[in-house]
Amino acid sequence: MDRAKKCLASALDGFRNHHKLEMELEEKITAEDVCLTGIVRHGFPDEPRCMAYDTVQRLLAIGTGHGVVRVIGGVGVDYCLKHKSDAAVLHIQFLMNEGALVTACHDDLIHLWNFRQKVPVVLHSIQLTKEQVTCISHSFQSKWLYFGTERGNVYFVNIATFTLSNYTINWNKAIDLGVRTHPGSVKAISTSPTELSKLLLLYEKGNVVLWNLQTKEVDRFISGQARCFAWHHDGRQFMCGTVDGSLLVWNIRKPGECTQKLQPHGQRCSPISQVDWKHSSDGEQLIIFSGGMPEDSGVSPTLTIMRASKSITVLELDHPLIAFTSLNASPYSSVSQQPSAIAVLMKHDLLVIDLTTPGYPCHENISPMDIHESRVRCISYFSNCPLDLLGALALVGSKQRRRGFSDKPWPITGGSGRDCAMGHQELLLTGHEDGCVKFWQASGEHLQILYKLNSGRHFERNDGMESHEASHAVTMIKLCLDSRLLLVAGQSGQLTLFRFAKTESSHEITVRRRKFSVLDGQYYGT
């Protein structure tokens, strides 16, 4: 009996051993086992095209030329919504306080996004076959979305079902029947603040009409001059920015003539491309517009801020202006209010200007929009960075960055950031073409600037040298976390050794000349 048990046990052991040999796995990892994937995108949105703001949820959305929508909010809220195609996002509109937004793309598709859930998705899409969208509009709590086309027609979309309505405003019904000239595309649509059945329409050739949705009656105000408009909160007046740089105020009951004409910068000015008209509770008006400068003042993009016709401030911008939007406190357009700030979207930058502080300083952007302020030439990444080093960089950097910025908190505070799953501290260093080195906190999903170091200020430029030889561009960064030594190499052959100190010090710097050769990205001295 014992012998039989031993034989059975031996047979089972042999079966187990044979099974183990067959289940052995190849432990060597090959290229097919891993892949790189994008998780987070940092820096300014590539090719921005449009912008929208949700007044209730305090979120800002930027549409780009590659099918991406960037949604920005409070600390840690910076997400990208990617369409299936790379078609440019031409127009964007929030459905305020609904956790949804509408995008119109260059491929003639209109999408309804839902970002209430963890992973934003497109709920519905409408494909246009014969016309292209030129503007979209939606009023707070309205059941309808309006969009105009390049053929001059206005269509209506039911928000609940996201289907087209049979109701259409054809261009030949909105324009005087005696006029045979096509007015061009629809450039803007806006609902009256006090009468939701009335739509103000602006056409490409400067025609402005007020359409009654119930009676299909139309009032025509201006022909061939308007480039933009903005409602007064009482719903009885609106303001037009014109082709000659003037501002015209119209009363909806007197379509025959304007009631007021303003020329903020005199006669013979450039066209006003966008205007906003606000009033405070005590009646003080605030007018913000882009363009409208004298023709001999140059081509620099500008933004003008007027208060009660007494104070006029012109802000000269560094990049071409795409759009601006007021950061209002209330979503209701029928109440008097003055925005605390305005968001200004430019070709290569995003500014949020404080309107409550004299001089109109900018808010410090909490999102890393300036990572490519000067072209990045090299990067260096460090994990498990000492916490005291990060704290020291943040402390010094906060004093460095506060100069020139508004003291008010960042006004775009919507959303909630996801908790970081990393248990260690990460540091990213970027070397730039202008000779500076930037230190970034990279522990979370989004980069946060800690400190900016200018490595090129210790060297003089030689006018006799070629431009590439005299460049202070940073080409290599080496940091030792233990000794706290930083070595920075520049394009023109300069090497700078920095030592981190707990206290600020001032002393002479010794410059030594050495001959170096570079092989495979490494410096060798002779």
From TrEMBL:
Signal peptide: which range, if any? none
GO biological process annotations for this chain's record?
exocytosis; Golgi to plasma membrane transport
> Could you tell me which residue ranges the Lethal giant larvae homologue domain spans?
264-361
List keywords of the entry alphabetically. Answer: Exocytosis, Repeat, WD repeat
Gene Ontology molecular function: GTPase activator activity; myosin II binding; syntaxin binding
Coiled-coil-forming residues are none
State the Pfam families in the record.
LLGL (PF08366), WD40 (PF00400)
Any single GO CC term annotated in Swiss-Prot or TrEMBL for this entry: SNARE complex
The family line of this record is: Belongs to the WD repeat L(2)GL family.
Tell me the PANTHER family matching this sequence: LETHAL 2 GIANT LARVAE PROTEIN, TOMOSYN, ISOFORM C
Question: What is the protein's name according to its record?
Answer: Lethal giant larvae homologue 2 domain-containing protein
